[in-house]
Amino acid sequence: MEATIAEIAPDIFRISIYPPGSGVSFGCFLIRDESPAMIETGLRSMYDLVHDAVRRLIDPAKLRYLVIPHFEMDECGSLNRFLAIAPRAEPVCSPVGGLVTLADFSDRPPKIVGGGERLSLGRKELRIVLAPWVHYWDSMLVHDETDRTLFTSDLFMQPGDREAIAREDRSAEVVDFCRFSGLLPSQKHLEAVLDRIEPLAVDTLACHHGSVLTGDPRRYYRALRQNTVGDVVQAPFYEMRNPPSAG
Ligand SMILES: [Fe+2]
Ligand SMILES: [Fe+2]
């Protein structure tokens, strides 16, 4: 098992690992700037691989922000390992994430950010988009306004071991996988978040399972409005004993 590294936008690196036989690949993103940031830390069991990949890009001890889009093993399993080696690093999470998980789970108090709040990294500025119930209640997305990249976490995920960047339209596959996994509990909440992200300037959808999606993002927003993927009550994934991971 190894980590692959690809620069998917200026100074944004996708670090991706595909465990053999897994249903999905697991990615996280390193943003190289004056205050370096990671979006997702990856799983605890993958810390060594991810840390080694980060070390090829920056000095990991200089990490400043560890952004946690929601509380789940592939988003923050190795959070405390990174906090231990980066003395200035702060976890960054939504108000709900801070209240219900990270305040206790994290070895260092999280920096809690609200919708519309900005995080300056130096050249880049990140803006927070709260996304409750897309797909957990603490979920948030992050927009890099400088280089038009939206970090979407599990939204727009695709299964399998995929190339770093996909330019062709994957919207049918995205819809199918949402229905299979049942990861979006509420169409109403999903559409409220689509309302928030549609006006944003975006060239790249940085999802952490499958390929990063480039080209007109509106085809993906439209696909999730026109094909109901929320409100799935009986998803095949819910009943699988040894399911491919759809985290
Ligand atoms: Fe997730
Ligand atoms: Fe995930």
Task: Lay out the secondary structure.
Layout: E1 3-9, E2 12-17, E3 26-31, E4 37-39, H1 47-55, E5 65-67, H2 73-76, H3 79-85, E6 90-93, H4 95-105, E7 111-112, E8 118-120, E9 125-130, E10 140-144, E11 149-153, E12 165-166, H5 171-181, H6 187-197, E13 204-207, E14 212-214, H7 218-226
Parallel strand pairs: 4-5, 5-6, 6-7, 11-13, 12-14
Antiparallel strand pairs: 1-2, 2-3, 3-4, 8-9, 9-10, 10-11, 13-14
Bound molecules: fe (ii) ion (2 copies).
Tell me, what is the CATH class?
Alpha Beta
N-end to C-end Cα span: 19 Å
**Alpha carbon gyration radius:** 16 Å
Strand content is 15-25%
Describe the 3D structure.
By secondary structure, this protein is α/β, with parallel strands linked by helices. The protein has one domain: Metallo-beta-lactamase, Chain A. It has 7 helices and 14 strands. It has a 7-stranded mixed sheet with strand order 1-2-3-4-5-6-7. The protein has a 7-stranded mixed sheet with strand order 8-9-10-11-13-14-12. It starts with a strand and ends in a 21-residue tail after the last helix. The relative contact order is 0.15. The mean pLDDT is 96. The structure holds fe (ii) ion (2 copies). One fe (ii) ion (FE2) binds next to loops.
